[in-house]
Amino acid sequence: MNTLNFECPKINSMACCLMQSRRRASMDRRLAAILAADVVGFSRLMEADEPGTLTSLMTHQSELLNPKIAEHSGRVVKFIGDGILAEFQSVLDAVACAVDIQRAMIVRNDPIPPDRRIEFRIGINLGDVILENGDIFGDGVNVASRLEGVARPGGIAVSAAVRDLVRERLDIAFEDTGDQHLKNITRPIRVYQLHLGKQTPKAANLIDTPFALPKRPSIAVLPFENMSGDPRQDYFADGLVDDLITELAKIHSLFVIARNSSFSYKGRSVDVKQVARDLGVRYVLEGSVRQSANRIRITGQLVEGAGATHVWADRLEGFAEDLFDLQDRFVTSIVGALEPSMRRAEIERALRKRPDTLDAYDLYLKALPHTHANSPAEAQKALQLLEEALKRDPNYALAHAYAAWCREQSYFRGGLDERDKSLALEHCNAAFNFGVDDPQVLSIAAFVQANLTHDYEAAILVLDRSLELNHNSALAYGFSALVNAHCQRNERAIEHALLALRLSPFDPLNYHPYCALTLAHWFSGRFEEAATYAALAVGANPNFSVTYAYLAAAYVELGNFDAARVAAKRLIELAPSFTISAFTRMGPFRPASVQSLANALKKIPLPL
């Protein structure tokens, strides 16, 4: 029997008519009031207590949302993650339902701790929708979803059409917030925020109860303002912020507010302190984009929300020939600068806290400046704090990683005590076990393990993995540069060192990439460049004794023995027990590599 040939025009036409007929049978177009709602700060609540949050959300859905929607003659179209979409034949019913839900949530949240409360944002629009197989689509649905995004926590935002039909018919007041450009909606939408009428002072205050801040540093990236006067440039500013949020979210130590919440502030004049309070974050990044002719200028500033104090600010400029490449470069620069800036601010905050209020994270922060110094005495101070942090949280991967590094410092510059080496490797293993997806943990532990075991190949694989997880980490690039330099992968060491310096030009750990550049040029026979980078390493960390050995050796090869002796003198002042033979034994290099450095050092008066 022959099969149908759909290349035949007549049969093809019949098939199309049949398909269109079936499609019309399952599809309908009508005017409806659409209600869209979702949970404020859902990702934060899930991180804090996933089972409890899901249970609470399902309870609210079954006990409140579903009954209220049915009571007001509405229909639940679908639940979407933490959100709900419903339709009503009457605008009045939709708004009354939303008001009842929000008022009921105030009462339901009363006995719940502020950081565990579920609050909804609700958006309502009147518009044309397409009904197909029980679902609804169309512009009316899209606008309702965007209105939900700009609603205040515990509040309701509506379009002008909704407000005009309701007016004074309910015990509510409308606040005109003006025309707003909502994402993926080409025309401006007039947005009204609802005030829920007569509330007790207690109920009114509950809506404004702030979120508890996460333990790790938290940030919201607000939409950048388009200063070009050309609405078509919004896509560049929005794309830049999208990429910034994505890249910051890769930094395991940061809590980053999701895009939908951040973009609810688009087109609005905002108070940074209020934004930080609404979203429950410590830091807010805001900025602007201006295009003039073929040049683009981006300004950004990081603000600590509680005190509205500036943590970081910068201005970046470039040519607009290739917007996507320019966007990538801007994102890389901003993310690279933000991470160490926030780290410094967090350290300062921890140092200001009372001793009796310190938790494991605070103790880790207080240890960081001592770990960065890279000297035996400072390493011991850091270890005391890190060990106390690990008593409070034995699974704290980052504390294990830094404890491993401090033990490595004590081993190499404190007398080659085998106990330090053994404990360092134990902390490395714990860091790998507890921080398997944390790029910062992986890069530190891989660096320490490579130095102690000389298994460079395994370390480079782990470092590459950490850079896959976060390709904007100056810390990971710096450690990768050093490991590659130690095993004479000179070109890769130079590439990663320069990336680290570009990402974070004022980082306190920049002596790492400078040391890597020194060694890579030394092993390549470029002694003048080696001396230059060794001097820069000394400037970045004047108390790190090893850099003076590199500097002295480079000066010897250049025939500048006076300068070499000055560097050697400072080396002995910092490390009185230094000997060339110990330097040879302790070096994290292959034997042939370290021998060339030792031979140069033997030409000046240093203890053998």
TrEMBL record:
Molecular function in Gene Ontology: adenylate cyclase activity
Swiss-Prot/TrEMBL keywords: TPR repeat
Pfam families according to UniProt: Guanylate_cyc, TPR_8
Positions of the Guanylate cyclase domain: 33-148
Gene3D superfamilies in UniProt: Nucleotide cyclase, Tetratricopeptide repeat domain, TolB, N-terminal domain
TPR repeats, residue ranges: 545-578
Domain of life: Bacteria
One annotated GO biological process: intracellular signal transduction
PANTHER family according to UniProt: ADENYLATE CYCLASE, TERMINAL-DIFFERENTIATION SPECIFIC-RELATED, PH-SENSITIVE ADENYLATE CYCLASE RV1264
Identification of the protein by name: Guanylate cyclase domain-containing protein
Organism: Sinorhizobium mexicanum
